Amino acid sequence: MADNFAAGKTAKSEQTRKRIVHTFLSLIDEKKWDKITVKELCARSEITRGTFYQYYSDIYELMEQIQASLLSDIQTRFAQIQSESRSGFPIEEFLEKFDYEPPQNLIVWFDFCKDNQDAIRALLDLQNGDIYFEKKLKHLLIDTINEMMDTDGLPHDELRNYFVKAFSELHFLAARIWLESDESDFLSVSEVVNLLNTMRVGAGYLTFKRNISPEFAQKIKELY
Questions:
Q1: What is the pTM of this model?
Q2: Is the dihedral of CA 32, 37, 38, 42 positive or negative?
Q3: Contact assessment for residue 193 and residue 107, using Cβ atoms and an 8 Å cutoff
Q4: What single DSSP character describes residue 86?
Q5: 79 burial via Cβ count (<10 Å: 0-12, 13-18, 19+)
Q6: CB-based contacts of 123, cutoff 8 Å, min separation 6
Q7: Positions in the chain short of pLDDT 70
Q8: Mean pLDDT over the full length of the chain
């Protein structure tokens, strides 16, 4: 009996915590996250202030715990990719060894966004979300994009920094558009991933051409 009572209490506690988080994320649609008060959160959640303070000391701790959970989730997913990473190769062997299939880090990113879509949509909101959370996510993305580029045989040249920044920004842009689309216009994970993978393939091919053709390299240099 005691075990059943404890299990029921734990389940109820988890449901209350989820209700608080869900309500907080929905309120971000209406106002800046740090302007949300405990009073209005409790009223919308239909809980007492005392219940809220059983779980969080304030709105900032609530946001911190939400972000910590999300960052732990994406770090775990990226770490799994690293343990199963493909072998790199010299860019000169692009035509023979380049894998045109979308790399796992792209799939993981959009699966992560899909699995946590309410939180990601709210926290990445340009008006009411948290820019510091975006910066933390971007740091993790840049690390995994660099690993992807190493695997693809791309050199650490003057163009890499630009590519990494542009590619990481596209991750966020694509996620925002994807998550904000109407359900009827909602692209699948594979469709969005293939769009970004086109840019990755192009970067690999251009680098390959620059390395094997001095004339092509000069043309690219003139473009910049």
A1: 0.85
A2: negative
A3: yes
A4: P
A5: exposed
A6: 28, 33, 66, 67, 70, 129, 130, 133, 134
A7: 1-9, 83-85, 182-186, 222-224
A8: 88
